[in-house]
Specification:
Layout: E1 7-10, H1 19-23, H2 27-56, H3 80-92, H4 96-108, H5 124-133, E2 137-142, H6 147-153, E3 161-164, H7 175-185, E4 192-196, H8 199-208, E5 212-216, E6 230-232, H9 235-242
Parallel strand pairs: 1-2, 1-4, 2-3, 4-5, 5-6
Helix pairs in contact: 2-3, 3-4, 5-9
């Protein structure tokens, strides 16, 4: 299988560092802005459900989330951040324009400085160095804007391609984000191994466009479909799998 792999593409959050290291630093924010964070999470769940329905039937309007979405809404969203703010605002019954600015200020930009103090998973740097030295084309795609995070984490120099799915008007597991990643890497999807920690978003999304997949998973997690091409619990295993 690996003889056809020319590119290694990674998710960021929860894949290159443990989520708990960020979450523990967000406790004051969660206590203060819990209502906003809860509505934001609900809005993204709604968006993912609507994306899936839109993919199943591009000609009919979804009705199950009509309280939050206009009939006939389609993806990619022309302005994802406005679209997301409108859904979140309806949940909170507030002004969407003001909320868009608040989400940008508090969530998107407000969290970034925390990454200065976050430690990567053990073995990440060595793995990225070895893969790049071995000639793999290196890609990264995150649902949230990754550029500043990569700088703070000290790994901005490893990548040939860095993308944010939201810039395409969708979020994972929508196939558009993965196809755009492959296009930017100048590789067919089947020549890319996508590495992520979320089966629902990373593995399902990447496999859906024909990429090979490697799942960073909890030791006791159950088997899921589609089955990843490789599962690992630490980066030494991933490196041994990719470089014999």
């Amino acid at each position: 299988m690996l003889e056809n792999i020319k590119g290694a593409a990674f998710d960021l959050d929860g894949t290159l560092y443990p989520n708990y290291r960020l979450n523990s630093r967000l406790i004051p924010f969660i206590l203060k802005e819990g209502r906003l964070l809860s509505a934001f999470g609900k809005a993204r769940t709604i968006i993912r459900k609507e994306q899936e329905k839109s993919l199943k039937d591009q000609t009919q309007s979804s009705t199950s989330t009509s309280r939050f979405l206009n009939p006939g809404s389609r993806f990619p969203a022309s302005d994802f951040y406005k679209f997301q703010a409108e859904i979140t605002a309806k949940i909170l019954s507030v002004n969407p324009e003001q909320l868009k600015d608040k989400i940008e200020r508090l969530i998107y930009r407000g969290w970034e400085p925390f990454f200065k103090a976050i430690k990567l998973f053990k073995g990440v740097i060595e793995t990225l160095e070895a893969l790049k030295k071995a000639g793999f084309k290196m890609g990264l795609m995150s649902d949230f804007p990754p550029e500043r995070k990569l700088e703070y984490l000290g790994i901005s120099g490893f990548w040939d391609v860095v993308q944010c799915s939201e810039y395409s008007g969708v979020i994972k597991p929508h196939p558009l984000s993965f196809n755009k990643l492959a296009e930017a890497m100048s590789l067919p999807p089947e020549n890319i191994l996508y590495i992520g920690n979320s089966h629902s978003y990373d593995i399902r999304g990447a496999a859906g466009v024909g990429m090979k997949t490697a799942w960073l998973k909890p030791v006791l997690s159950e088997k899921k479909d589609p089955k990843p091409d490789f599962s690992f619990t630490n980066y030494r295993q991933l490196l041994n799998f990719m470089i014999h």
